[in-house]
Amino acid sequence: MKTPEITTFAAESPTPLLREIPEAASFPVSALGPLCTPVEAIASATEAPKALCAASVLAAAALAAQGHREAETLNGTAPASLFLLTIAESGERKSTADRLAMQGVRDFEAELRTDYDKEQELWRDAHELWKADRAKIFADRKADNASKRADLQALGPESTAPLKPHIVASAPTIEGIVKHLPELRASLGIMTEEGGALIGGHSMKAENRLATCASFSAMWDGQPLDRWRAGDGVAAYVGRRFSAHILVQPVAAEALLSDPMANGQGLLARFLVCRPASRIGMRLRMERDALAEAEIAHFAMRIRSLLSRDLPLADNKRNELAPPVLHMSQDARAVLTTFARKVETAQAPAGPFEGVRAFASKAPEHAARIAAVLTIYADPEAEEMTGETMAGAIEIATFYANEAARLADSAIVPREVADAERMRKWLLERWKEPYISAAVATQRGPFKLTDRSRKALHMLETHGALIKADDAEVDGKPRNEAWLIVREWPS
Predict the structure, then answer these.
(1) Judging by beta carbons within 10 Å of its beta carbon (0-12, 13-18, 19+), is residue 35 exposed, middle or buried?
(2) What angle do CA 221, 226, 227 make, to 5 degrees?
């Protein structure tokens, strides 16, 4: 057997199938003002990326703040709500970081459940008595209709069951959320550590996707949510507020980011999206951080305290918000106006935000919402957002706008191309022999024991990154389906 001659090239790698995406920028933690400390504490305790920790903290703070005030913007008002989408690989400790950030929310829900159990028992007894009295009125054959109407009026209407003790949904469908709105509190969150189940679930199937995108957009906008069903009639729910944080792995995220309907409907422009640089392999501290744990506990207490405050409800309504407006100071308005002009200029042809105009056009509103959350978290009685707080919120909104621009190109990469690029990097960085075979790549490569390895190798061959070399020796054995690895294009 003759081994094909090895072509020697320089040490550099061949041109990749994908244009390299720039590394994620550092999250501007100092711009978070009162939320800076809990983000640093969670990052210290978990060694997860700070952008991931910041998103979880912002989501918890938005959930606690959104029911108390509306945010003044340059074009009116908007809910003090935030939608966040954080992309991270498995093992990035996103669940741990999010659990710590959401501890105050979970504590509040536990308190609600305790109260609910007592209230539900009292309501159930009163309800049974009411039903019995009502049945007795109708069963009275001696009373005429006028007497029965008077007795029914004296009995009064059926009492309403206590609101359910849930404010966070982790794997909901839009249909389920809207259906249960009458029995839920007015300020709610959609928070999930397994975003793939939501993105790939019932709500985002082809036949439901348009309605789901429209409903999510209405939630962010604070618009009424309608329910039209043949059996249930028609209902419209107003005065509800929603914040969301979806933590998702890259594969599931790519399906959403490349979805033309999610983009066309403007849903993705309503999300603050980031994909932090991985910290896997750099998390070497193993001891507990007592100071960080104390700060995390303090944050949980603050969130629980905000959630426990009475919500500003509409007259004679138990779960319909009518929040007052948190205005901008003169300085805050001036700072936000300058930012809006810069963002508008950046959307021009060849500008840095040309490819993400949908998000960029909402960036000033995102900044106003973030500023409102920071203000309410610090002081729910504050009368206005300050220029300093708005400047910090603008820095955060700019980070997310830059992330939107950075991730835009990667959102349209087919799975097969991404697999081929991953295989190419593995061959160049991990495989030291000059040849590779399909059998060895399948056993030891990045897609162990799957057919994805063979498909990736064939795609690399078509792109010139591999040269067919049957009967080459690979891993000490002659192999039929083998290739020479091109480690540099010939000059």
Answers:
(1) buried
(2) 145
- The CATH topology of domain 415-485 is Arc Repressor Mutant, subunit A (1.10.10)
Q: Tell the burial category of 467 from Cβ atoms under 10 Å away from its Cβ (0-12, 13-18, 19+).
A: middle
The predicted model scores a pTM of 0.81
pLDDT at 203: 61
Q: Which helix (H) or strand (E) holds 83?
A: strand 83-87
pLDDT in tens, 11-28: 345 566 666 667 888 999
Q: Write down the pLDDT at residue 1.
A: 35
For residue 454, give every residue at least 6 positions away whose Cβ sits within 8 Å of its Cβ, in sequence order, or none: 438, 441, 442, 481
Nearest Cα residue to 346 out of 333, 359, 332: 359
The closest of 489, 79, 47, 68 to 306, measured between CA atoms, is 68
pLDDT above 90 covers what percent of the chain? 61
DSSP 236: E
pLDDT tens, position by position, 79-107: 999 999 999 888 899 999 999 999 999 99
Better-predicted residue by pLDDT, 180 or 385: 385
Question: How many helices (H) and strands (E) are present in the chain, helices listed first?
Answer: 17, 16
pLDDT at 210 (0 to 100)? 75
Indicate the CATH number for domain 29-109+166-412: 3.40.50
Same CATH fold, 415-485 and 29-109+166-412? no
- 462, 455 in Cβ contact below 8 A? no
Instruction: Using alpha carbons, select from 375, 373, 396 the residue that is nearest to residue 387.
Output: 375
Task: Spell out the domain ranges in the chain.
Answer: 29-109+166-412, 415-485
Specify the residue for token string 């690989």.
89
